């Protein structure tokens, strides 16, 4: 493939995963939306691209920072062509996307909750990158053998002189984007970590980070949890998965039209078929975005069903990893039916009856959780996951919940309705619903889908001026 074609693919990929989706305006106020959602539209997630020499972009391999406001790449480090060829072992048309978080972008508004919101957002970004890769016939894998220290060195976020007075970035993960179609493990299937880190260490670095705000409040709790959960290199025990280059799961138009609902009308309903389709797409499978993750499913859905034609109102559980069912049932301290509610999905009816008030209560008393067709809480297989992979996997659990949320967003759009993530929820009341004690399963994220109430006062423009031409 020519480097010009790679440039075009790269541009389409970034535009439909991390770029601006639209501009909204009300009177004198104007603000942008992005393809990847964010708590409060604050966007703490930053993205870096690592690629070989590309016509019209860079004459040498380089590390770039992606600027979504301009859909532009800002060169941070140029390094030797031979080093990129050696690091990619012949897969020179591949590229890497590294994701980091700026905690302050959430902390100024949400305080201590900012850390988990940053992890939710990073998970949404992982899913957006994995799904959009299908538009250019590519496949995404998260590389498990990259530690936080490695990612900091690759992206340059550990370069103190480049961040004087600027908000520091916390390393997240590295995603390999390739045309690989044969079986390959998640262990750096595309790139040699050692060779690439050696190359950027000898490279030519340029640029300095901009300061977002000169008024800061230090949240020491966030610093402590970041230190305690910093990602370490992992050697997954899962077998290698076949890279399947299936057709894109969603169209480019659908990716750009995704929005977060602000409120629902509290009326109407969806059919059972649409409901079950959404749940089936939220199940792990050998397709994007699920095959980008190197671990098996650890997030399960506690559903509050309100108005789904052909489905009894009540509380349900979608067990996304059937091997967890017995432990989940044993952990629940309350008596439930656990009646199979679908012939092929691991969906179980727990209790019948109107649960709108309950759904609102556990989601910080927000009406949107009870006015949709259904809402849900995401339960993580917590203790066992941390015992297996260490404290750094705490972040991965939130990332997986963000991936689930991104799929639900897109499934809602595909069904002609709308969804929204709910980051504010009451942990203990959620656990009380099931009678959970201890930390075997923990609530990490909420979500709801319904018929949105539009605001005709707002005007909408494309994400970039050149798209209007």
Helix fraction by DSSP (H/I, runs of at least 4): 25-40%
- Tertiary shape: globular
Q: What's the domain count?
A: 2
What is the CATH fold-level name of the largest domain?
A: NADH Oxidase
For the terminal residues, how far apart are their CA atoms?
A: 29 Å
Radius of gyration: 22 Å
What oligomeric state best describes the polypeptide chains here? single chain
Strand content: 15-25%
Strand order of the largest sheet: 7-8-6-3-4-5-9
CATH superfamily of the largest domain: NADH Oxidase
Mean pLDDT: 92
CATH class of the largest domain: Alpha Beta
- Stretches where pLDDT is under 50 for at least 5 consecutive residues are 182-189
Number of strand elements: 19
How many strands, what sense, and barrel or not for the largest sheet? 7 strands, antiparallel
Structural class: alpha+beta
Tally of individual helices: 15
What does this structure look like?
The structure is a single chain. With 469 residues, the protein is of the alpha+beta class. The chain folds into two domains: 3-228, NADH Oxidase; 260-450, NADH Oxidase (3-Layer(aba) Sandwich), CATH 3.40.109. It is built from 15 helices and 19 strands. The protein has helices at 3-15, 81-88, 104-110, 114-133, 148-155, 193-201, 220-228, 252-257, 272-281, 325-331, 356-362, 368-371, 382-389, 393-414, 427-434; strands spanning 20-26, 29-34, 45-51, 62-67, 72-78, 95-101, 139-142, 170-178, 204-205, 270-271, 299-305, 308-309, 314-318, 339-340, 347-352, 374-381, 418-422, 441-450, 459-462. Strands 7-8-6-3-4-5-9 form a seven-stranded antiparallel β-sheet. Strands 14-15-13-11-16-18-17 form a seven-stranded antiparallel β-sheet, sandwiched between helices. A three-stranded antiparallel β-sheet has the order 2-1-19. Strand 4 and strand 5 (72-78) form a beta hairpin. Helix 2 packs antiparallel against helix 6 and helix 3 (104-110) crosses helix 4 (114-133). It is globular. The two termini are 29 Å apart.
């Amino acid at each position: 493939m020519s480097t010009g074609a790679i440039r075009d693919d790269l541009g389409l990929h970034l535009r439909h995963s991390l770029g601006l989706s639209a501009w909204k305006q009300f009177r004198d106020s104007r603000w942008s939306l992005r393809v990847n959602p964010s708590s409060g539209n604050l966007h703490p997630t930053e993205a870096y691209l690592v690629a070989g020499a590309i016509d019209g972009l860079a004459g040498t391999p380089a590390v770039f920072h992606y600027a979504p406001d301009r859909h532009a790449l800002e060169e941070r480090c140029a390094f030797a062509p031979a080093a990129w060829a050696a690091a990619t072992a012949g897969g020179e048309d591949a590229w890497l996307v590294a994701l980091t978080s700026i905690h302050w972008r959430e902390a100024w508004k949400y305080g201590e909750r900012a850390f988990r919101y940053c992890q939710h957002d990073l998970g949404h970004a992982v899913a957006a990158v994995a799904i959009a890769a299908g538009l250019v016939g590519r496949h995404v894998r998260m590389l498990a053998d990259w530690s936080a220290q490695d990612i900091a060195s690759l992206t340059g976020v550990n370069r103190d002189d480049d961040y004087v007075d600027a908000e520091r970035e916390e390393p997240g993960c590295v995603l390999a984007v390739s045309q690989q179609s044969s079986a390959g493990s998640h262990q750096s299937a595309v790139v040699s970590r050692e060779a690439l880190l050696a190359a950027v260490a000898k490279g030519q670095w340029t640029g300095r980070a901009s300061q977002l705000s000169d008024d800061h409040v230090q949240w020491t709790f966030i610093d402590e949890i970041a230190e305690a959960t910093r990602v370490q290199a992992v050697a997954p025990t899962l077998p290698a998965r076949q890279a399947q280059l299936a057709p894109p799961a969603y169209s480019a138009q659908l990716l750009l039209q995704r929005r977060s609902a602000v409120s629902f009308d509290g009326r109407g309903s969806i059919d059972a078929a649409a409901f079950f389709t959404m749940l089936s797409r939220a199940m792990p499978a050998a397709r994007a975005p699920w095959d980008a993750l190197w671990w098996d499913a650890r997030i399960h859905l506690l559903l509050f069903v309100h108005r789904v034609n052909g489905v009894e109102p009540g509380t349900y559980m979608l067990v996304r990893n059937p091997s967890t069912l017995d432990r989940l049932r044993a952990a629940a301290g309350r008596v439930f039916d656990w009646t199979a509610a679908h012939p092929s999905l691991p969906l179980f009816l727990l209790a019948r009856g109107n649960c709108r008030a309950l759904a609102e209560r556990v989601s910080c008393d927000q009406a949107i959780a009870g006015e949709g067709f259904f809402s849900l809480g995401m339960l993580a297989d917590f203790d066992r996951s941390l015992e297996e992979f260490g404290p750094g996997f705490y972040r991965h659990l939130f990332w997986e919940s963000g991936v689930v949320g991104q799929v639900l967003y897109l499934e809602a759009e595909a069904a002609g309705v709308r969804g929204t993530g709910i980051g504010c929820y009451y942990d203990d009341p959620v656990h009380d619903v099931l009678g959970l004690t201890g930390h075997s399963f923990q609530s990490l994220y909420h979500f709801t889908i319904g018929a949105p109430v539009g605001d005709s006062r707002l005007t909408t423009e494309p994400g970039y001026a050149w798209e209007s031409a």
